[in-house]
Amino acid sequence: MADTFGKVSLLLADVDGTLVTRDKVLTERALKAVHSLHDKGIRFAITSGRPPKGMAMLIAPLAIDTPVAGFNGGLFVHPDLSIIEEKLLPFDAAKQALDLIASHGLDGWVYAGNDWLIRDAKAPHVDREGRTVQFGPKVVKAFDNDMLSRAVKIVGVSDDLRRVRQCEADVQKALGSRATAARSQPYYLDVTHRDANKGFVLDYLSRKLSVPTSEIATIGDQPNDVLMFKRSGFSIAMGNSSEDVQRQANVVTDSYEDEGFAKAVERFLLDE
Fold first, then answer.
1. What are phi and psi of 17, to 5 degrees?
2. Same domain, 37 and 71
3. Among 192, 211, 243, which residue terminates a domain?
4. What pLDDT is stored for residue 272 in this prediction?
């Protein structure tokens, strides 16, 4: 129960694979769980590889009053989506990441400002991503220097999950400390500013909201959530996460297809 893990003042949640179901639905039970947190005086924040605009549909229903961290911390916005802080990728890192993504046979996407830029409208996951974030991409012939100089996030996409894993390792090795590269889904490799990762998101919210990291609980399902697990006072892995991710959390809840988020809040934070 919550008392076992000390005081919890804030819950920081991943979105896809965690807060919402496979079909990107926010269930009534999850909604009720977050409102129960508010009633108990525990604040709630969300972070995702999505652009902030792609989380807009969650802000009002969940009564979110904390900064929203899009692009894994590459862009922080107020609940009205006005920009607080933006971290652009270095131009050379953006260009090298795209070259490596192409060399591994992955499709490349570029997020610059509020624009989602792609080269092939029929590439894997474009339609699904459009439904998820509830806005469409702009198709361009090529990613020019202006686009890369404004890039907040670059994504490599493929349904060949082995290639995505290998590309992740090679991009991490090539870019070193110049950028952060991690899978946000088995088929998505996200490349962001070196300080744009979910560990940085936790530290940012701790400073911004004056909440000690020891009083922040985190919940997620992917390898890029582990950085926030390591910095938080209490971490929860989803039942649909890999064994490696689960090993690095304090506890494991059920799958996102079995109300895992709501059950975790009820059991560990609300003492139900």
1. 85, -5
2. yes
3. 192
4. 62
